[in-house]
Write a structure and sequence with these properties.
With 247 residues, the chain is α+β, with helices and mostly antiparallel strands. Helix content is 48%, strand content 19%. The chain is elongated, with a radius of gyration of 24 Å. One of its GO terms (biological process) is glycerol metabolic process. May be an activator protein for the gylABX operon.
Length: 247
């Protein structure tokens, strides 16, 4: 039987202080924090000075509040938190439909692929061209673009050429716009990004977030992927709910 893990008490106490300050509706004084956490007052002052020096807390006239480092950490970890919550749904979809699965998000005007769940018998697509610049040719890119309003699509498309990746890639802006406006639910890429590969995607919508969940497979399996889009839509809904819960 494994022994108990070795813990560093000073780190625990510092983290508990951050929790207590964050939970307080008003600036928290050192005496209040010492009593709340059952810490000696000198120890509390020492930890608070360290946290203020490092930017995790700010000292005001009437107590302590969370510092800028905490805010920055939360912003950097937004994508990481989405990945953590979405991964089970991606893995479940991969195993159910036997194909590599993908999660992409629309952030700061860009289409970003943030996670892939694949396996030895379900390899991911060879991303030979950066997916952020070819949203017109990927299922998840088209899915995200179809969720944007017209000005949003125009902004993205004004910055990226409609590259001709395969004979099946749509490069006419008018045809692309018509298809994006008509897209509802599941969106397909049938050898538009890579010959021999098909991909289908469903939108992920949550407060403050637009994204897509997609699955790829050899093009011979395209009819099977499109025959039952329910699994893909359910996976996208699970991701959306997980993200909404975090928000």
């Amino acid at each position: 039987m494994a022994g108990a893990p070795t813990l560093i008490g000073s780190v625990q106490r510092a983290l508990h202080l951050l929790d207590a300050v964050g939970a307080s509706e008003r600036p928290a004084t050192a005496k209040f924090l010492a009593r709340a956490l059952d810490l000696p007052l000198p120890t509390t002052y020492h930890l608070l000075r360290t946290l203020v020096h490092e930017g995790y807390l700010r000292k005001l006239d009437d107590g302590y509040v969370l510092g800028n480092r905490v805010d920055a950490l939360g912003q950097r970890n937004t994508v990481q938190a989405v990945v953590s919550r979405a991964r089970p749904a991606l893995q479940s979809l991969r195993d159910e439909l036997r194909g590599a699965t993908y999660l992409s998000l629309y952030q700061d005007g860009e289409i970003k692929l943030i996670d892939v769940a694949d396996g030895p018998s379900m390899p991911s697509v060879d991303l030979w061209v950066g997916v952020h610049e070819v949203g017109h040719a990927t299922a998840f890119g088209k899915c995200i673009l179809s969720c944007l309003d017209k000005p949003g699509r125009d902004d993205y498309l004004s910055r990226y050429k409609l590259a001709d990746l395969t004979p099946h890639t749509v490069t006419d802006p008018r045809v692309l716009e018509q298809r994006l406006r008509l897209n509802r639910g599941v969106v397909a890429d049938r050898e538009e990004y890579l010959l021999g590969t098909a991909c289908v995607a469903a939108p992920v919508r949550a407060p403050g977030l637009i994204g897509a969940v997609a699955i790829s497979a050899p093009v011979r399996r395209y009819p099977a992927l499109m025959a039952d889009p329910g699994a893909l839509s359910r996976a996208a809904n699970r991701v959306a709910r997980a993200v909404a819960l975090r928000a």
